[in-house]
Amino acid sequence: MSLPPAVHHVALRTGDIHSLAAFYAEMLGLPLIRDLAPRSLWLGLGGDAVLMIESRQAKEPTLPDGTMDLVAFRVDAARKAAVREAALARGCFDGETEHTVYVRDPDHRRVGVSTYEF
Length: 118
Description:
Blueprint: E1 9-14, H1 17-28, E2 32-36, E3 40-44, E4 50-55, E5 70-74, H2 77-90, E6 93-96, E7 100-104, E8 110-114
Parallel strand pairs: 1-4, 5-8
Antiparallel strand pairs: 2-3, 3-4, 6-7, 7-8
């Protein structure tokens, strides 16, 4: 019997890979595991999964303002609280529910950190 699919990588396209990678490193504590600048920066998500911050081509569209597309990361309660405080200080807090804090990254992408257990 084969294993169910698991996240291999998430790729986010941006006009400024350094700014976006710094945001995810600071907010989520993700380590830089591969520097392929100026094309991409890879941040570790744990296990074998990575968050790839990739350089957007000039012809690619930017994200629409107010997009509700979302990527959410599982965190513990302490990390969720730290992200909430950091987001409030940075002015990128975008709301919360009982289990999830929402923020906007430098490209205005909606990002969640959640303690919800499936």
